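[step 3/7] fold_predict: job queued, chain A
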Amino acid sequence: MQMTDFDSQMNQADAQIMATFSNVSVYLPGQSNAKPGIFDEPLSLIKVSGGGQIQRADYTLSLLSDDATGLRRREVLTLEFQDGSTQKFTVVNPSESGSMKKFTLEKYDGHHQSKPDIRY
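[step 4/7] structure written:
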């Protein structure tokens, strides 16, 4: 598929967004070089019908598509934050939008599953 002028402009815009807003270094499985990423941790408040609320974080990571080639569900990533701390996350759900890929993450619990966790 041939890249159009519009696609080229969007790729340049995504590269500029990543250069401007990157806030983590991402170590992908089997790679020693970090890739720049945009990590977000928005909090959600869920209201409980009996009263009260539950607070939870929805972790997301955006990477340039070329940097995320082959990254799939259940793979473990190491993120290095700007303060030098690191945290492992498991990929829950990847989605693609142009030259950027967005991943929903969950904190890695120390167990790497090879099969999906489906309960009936």
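[step 5/7] annotate
The CA atoms of residues 47 and 108 lie 26 Å apart.
The chain has one helix and eight strands.
exit 0
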